[in-house]
Amino acid sequence: IANARLEFSSGCTATLTASRVHxxxxxxxxxxxxxxxxxxxxxxxxxxxxxxxxxxxxxxTIKIKKEEPLKLELQNFFKCTKDGKIRKVSGNEGLRALKxxxxxxxxxxx
Length: 110
Fold this sequence. Notes:
By secondary structure, the protein is α+β, with helices and mostly antiparallel strands. The chain is built from two helices and six strands. It is globular, with a radius of gyration of 17 Å. It starts with a strand and ends with a helix. This is Gfo/Idh/MocA-like oxidoreductase C-terminal domain-containing protein.
C-alpha cells in the first residue's frame, strides 16, 4: 500500500492511496464537506452524495452521462488543434501532473 499526501497552495490537501492488495480495481475520489461527502467512482462513472447525518436513506446518486474518458480527451485535443483553440488542459499543466505522478511513483519505490 502506498500513500501520498498533497498540499496545495490554497490550503486544501489530498491523500492518494494505491494498493495491489485489493481484489478488484478501484478508481475513486472522495470530497469531504462539513455536512456531506461525495464519492466519485471513475471506473463505474457514478457519483454519490452521502450526508454526514448518519441516515442511509438520504444518500443521493447524481446521474452523469457515461462516456469513455480517453476518447473524450483525444477528441478535445484534435478539435482544439484543428480549430486553433486552447485545450482544457494545457501542455504545461499536463507536464506538471506527469512530473507529480512520477514523483509519487519514485517515492513509493523507496
